[in-house]
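Students often ask why inverse folding is considered easier than folding. One informal answer: many sequences map to the same fold, so there is more than one right answer. In these notes we will look at a single instance of the problem. The structure comes first.
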């Protein structure tokens, strides 16, 4: 039995068993990332799709995902690889790549505009050791590294990656503890602390998915954007915010897609505090 210190769950994991995220396992009394190098998705994406709008605009980035997640968002768009039963089949089914192989492939994609590696699709930080190893090698080869995360990790995990990650998109899924706890199975305070630290180490952009009747009030957006407005990226510039439209998915089919006018109205409110606000999925 050992305790995992990667996120607020602090799972006590018996020998041979896995933690809540399905990706970390107790072996010989130690917690190790069972999903190390296990790739479920690989695509060369425009960097705007991460989304990042103020980091190497117009470029492409080789994006890799593994399996498992430490949140339980009922509307997950990547549930096939994050936290459904199907996702856990990837323990056997996912391809294994080494950091060297991934970086070699990223370099081969350079002629078509690739600038580096993005760790994305599932929650990458539950397997942060692979990110550290691949990102270090990517830097040695002149590539950049991007992390797309839910920000649900303890600060030592962020520190372990410091210097290797050049840009992050972090979800700030809402601005109430209730929503994080009751709907997403998360911990808003951990995410806020993560974001506050991340802006000291690399370029950060944030994403908020607006879900009807959950986090779509004007007051919540006012509070969220005011808080984001108090942050600065390492170059002294403001932190961009992406406000995105929800569509019914996975276990959340009981409501319609977010009205486009709601997304635009909340964007206007965010712009009272922030210079860079972008809409998504509209
Ligand atoms: S990373 Fe996974 S195993 Fe570790 S504490 Fe979080 S949910 Fe549990």
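Output (designed amino acids):
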């Amino acid at each position: 039995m050992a305790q995992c210190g990667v996120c607020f769950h602090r799972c006590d994991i018996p020998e041979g068993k896995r933690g809540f995220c399905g990706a970390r396992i107790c072996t010989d009394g130690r917690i190790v990332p069972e999903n190390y190098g296990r790739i479920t998705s690989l695509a060369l994406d425009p960097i705007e799709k991460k989304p990042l709008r103020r980091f190497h605009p117009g470029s492409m980035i080789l994006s890799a995902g593994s399996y498992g997640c430490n949140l339980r968002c009922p509307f997950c768009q990547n549930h096939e690889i994050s936290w459904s039963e199907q996702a856990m089949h990837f323990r056997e089914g996912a391809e294994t790549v080494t950091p060297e192989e991934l970086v070699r492939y990223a370099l081969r994609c350079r002629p078509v505009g690739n600038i580096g590696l993005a760790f994305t699709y599932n929650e990458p930080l539950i397997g942060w050791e692979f990110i550290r190893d691949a990102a270090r090698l990517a830097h040695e080869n002149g590539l950049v590294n991007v992390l797309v995360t839910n920000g649900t990790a303890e600060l030592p995990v962020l520190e372990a990656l410091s210097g290797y990650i050049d840009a992050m998109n972090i979800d700030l899924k809402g601005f109430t503890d209730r929503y994080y706890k009751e709907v997403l199975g998360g911990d808003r305070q951990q995410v806020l602390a993560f974001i506050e630290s991340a802006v000291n180490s690399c370029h950060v952009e944030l994403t908020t998915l607006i879900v009807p009747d959950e986090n779509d009030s004007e007051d919540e957006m006012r509070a969220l954007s005011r808080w984001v407005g108090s942050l600065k990226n390492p170059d002294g510039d403001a932190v961009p915010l992406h406000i995105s439209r929800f569509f019914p998915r996975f276990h959340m089919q009981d409501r319609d897609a977010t009205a486009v006018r709601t997304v635009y109205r909340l964007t206007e409110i965010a712009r009272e505090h922030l210079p860079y606000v972008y809409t998504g999925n509209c």
